[in-house]
Design goal:
This protein is of the alpha+beta class and about 150 residues long. It contains six helices and four strands; from the N terminus they run αααααββββα.
């Protein structure tokens, strides 16, 4: 009887240890590095897996509008030029379910790449990136319009 109790305790301990916290999800930086490798290898399946659900929906709409495949859009719309020999990054910031990483583009300037935490993983948020670009353009246009209005007074 004592042998069975000890065996039970050992098995319970092993079971408890195996159910402990699993692997930590990849960080936004690690996700981005995986994405860059997938671009170099032209691995669209991996590239799509690393994009947020909203980003995939946006790219599907673009593919439909241009009458091309989603894979063609994903391959074409990378965050950097696939011929770049190196990609520099800095300032990874995580704030709850959102994160950003600054990445040097082919023009030599840093752009902020947004990430969202979906399904237990960090995903690149190209939709957020596009939304931010549109917002920046609208803000600049509004400033120019305000300047023209101010000059006419």
């Amino acid at each position: 009887m004592r042998f069975i109790s000890i065996l039970f305790l050992i098995l319970a301990g092993l079971f408890g240890a195996s159910c402990g916290p699993g692997d930590q999800p990849a960080t936004p930086l690690e996700t981005f590095k995986t994405y860059t490798k997938a671009i170099k290898q032209k691995d669209t399946t991996t590239m799509k897996l690393l994009l947020s659900a909203d980003s995939i929906k946006m790219l599907e709409q673009e593919a439909k509008a241009q009458n091309i495949s989603l894979d063609d859009v994903v391959k074409r719309e990378t965050l950097f030029n696939e011929n770049q020999t190196s990609v520099e990054f800095r300032n990874e910031k995580i704030d709850g379910g959102r994160a950003t990483l600054e990445v040097k583009n082919s023009f030599g300037t840093f752009e902020t790449v947004p990430f969202v935490f979906e399904e237990g993983e960090w995903k690149i948020d190209k939709k957020g990136f596009a939304d931010r670009l549109i917002e920046d353009i609208e803000q600049e246009n509004n400033q120019q319009l305000d300047s023209v209005i101010d000059q006419s007074r």
